[in-house]
Amino acid sequence: MNLKDYIRDVRDFPSEGILFKDITPLLNNPKAFKTALDEILGYLDGKEIDKVVGMESRGFFFAPMLALNLDAGFVPVRKVGKLPVETIRQNYGLEYGLDTLEIHSDAIKKGERVLVHDDVLATGGTAEATCKLVEKLRGEIVQCNFLIELDFLKGREKLKSYEVRSLLHY
Ligand code: AMP
Questions:
Q1: DSSP SS3 for 35
Q2: Ligand 1 atom closest to 120 (CA)
Q3: Mean pLDDT of residues grouped by 10 in the chain (170 residues)?
Q4: Total number of domains constituting the chain
C-alpha cells in the first residue's frame, strides 16, 4: 500500500505559507496505521531500546506504541509547564523567537539506550533540542526516527551525530 495516500496536505495551516502534513487519515485507517508502525519498528530490528522519547504532541501517537513493541518505557517531552515534577529544560530556535521543551529529570537513567520519535522532521530544531535533553540526562541515543521527513528543510543536518530514519520523504 502507498502510505503517502494517507497523508493530507493542508495549505496555510497553522499559519500562512506552511504546507501542513496531516497524518490523521493514516491514523484513521487501521491497515495504514499498522503498516506504518511495523515499518518504523523494522528500523530497530535487533537494537535494544530502554526508553522511547516522543515529542508533544503528535510524537505521542506512535512513540508509546513503539515503546510497548520494543519492551521499552515511554517518556514524554513537553512544552514548558506541562510536566508536574522536577524537569530539565532546553531552548530551541523557531522562525521567530525561542521555545522551550522539558523532560522529567528522573525519566532517563545514565547509560539508558534511547529512541527519539516524532511525526515530522522539518527544520530539526525540535529533535535537536530533544536529543540535548536526553544527553543532559546521560542517555545514549540509538536512533531518531520520523514518520515524515521534509528533505528540503535539511533537518537531518542538525542531527548529524545520530542515526536518522524516516518512513516518508517529501
Ligand atoms: P522542526 O522543529 O522544524 O523540525 O518541526 C518539527 C515539529 O513541528 C514536529 O513536531 C512537527 O509535528 C511539526 N511540523 C513542522 N512542520 C510541519 C509540517 N509541514 N507539517 C506537519 N507538522 C509539522
A1: helix
A2: 11
A3: 98 95 98 98 97 98 98 98 98 88 98 98 97 98 98 98 98
A4: 1
CA distance 50 to 73: 6
The verdict on residue 99 lying in a domain is: yes
Q: What is the pLDDT of residue 96?
A: 75
Mutation to probe ligand 1, out of 11, 16, 101, 120 (largest number of atoms < 8 A from CB): 120
Give, for ligand 1, the residue of 12, 126, 154 to mutate: max count of ligand atoms closer than 8 Å to Cβ: 126
Print the domain residue range for 71.
47-169
Q: What angle do CA 55, 99, 89 make, to 5 degrees?
A: 70
